[in-house]
Specification:
By secondary structure, the protein is α/β, with parallel strands linked by helices. It has one domain: Flavodoxin domain (Rossmann fold), CATH 3.40.50.360. The protein starts with a strand and ends with a helix. The protein binds flavin mononucleotide. Flavin mononucleotide binds next to helix 1 and strand 3.
């Protein structure tokens, strides 16, 4: 039975594609990825384990569907929940706001009492600043389809292997 809800927002399809690859890597545990535009606070509340995926737009702005639904997401009580976050970004084009959306979502989850799991070392990424960084880790998994699409599958494989423990 699917016990992990996966919700994403995607403007050009990169985050949606990553959500599907993450779901496939998790197998039966994962629900079919759903756009954050097509869900509700009640549906999110039904999962004790969640994965959120968001790209960053503008200069450090949330992807549009997340932006439109931030008050709905903020209304969720995350206190009994573990949430893993992934973010699509462009570290060469936007080195000062790389995957900022991960940081925004992590704040929402933590402010709602939830635990953010699935942190990833900053080693191997080239950027200057990011709201997604705490110490020497990202608060979720950054994926860069603009510059490093060849690394996405391996990054997803390593991350989902840790989530099988971290989200339980
Ligand atoms: C106009 C524009 C602004 C962007 N701003 C950022 C940004 O501030 N930070 C970042 O990491 N990536 C930024 N990106 C890169 C996108 O997040 C990246 O292309 C991502 O893969 C898009 O995912 P999506 O198709 O799921 O929305 C930007 C891209 C464009 C075209």
């Amino acid at each position: 039975m699917a016990t992990i809800g996966i919700f994403y927002g995607s403007n050009t399809g990169n985050t949606e594609s990553a959500a599907k690859r993450i779901a496939a890597a998790l197998g039966d545990q994962a629900a079919e990825p759903t756009s954050i535009a097509d869900t509700s606070a009640d549906e999110l509340s039904g999962y004790s384990a969640l994965i959120f995926g968001a790209s960053t737009w503008g200069v450090g702005d949330m992807q549009d569907d997340w932006d439109d639904n931030l008050s709905m997401v903020t209304s969720v009580d995350f206190s009994d929940k573990k949430v893993a976050i992934f973010g699509l970004g462009d570290q060469e084009g936007y080195p000062d706001t790389f995957v900022d959306a991960i940081g925004v979502l992590a704040n929402i989850v933590r402010n709602g009492g939830g635990a953010v799991v699935g942190q990833v070392s900053t080693d191997g990424y080239e950027f200057d600043e990011s709201q997604a960084v705490e110490g020497d880790v990202f608060l979720g998994l950054p994926l860069d389809e603009d510059n490093e699409s060849d690394r996405t599958d391996k990054r997803i494989e390593a991350w989902t292997a840790t989530l099988k423990n971290d989200l339980n």
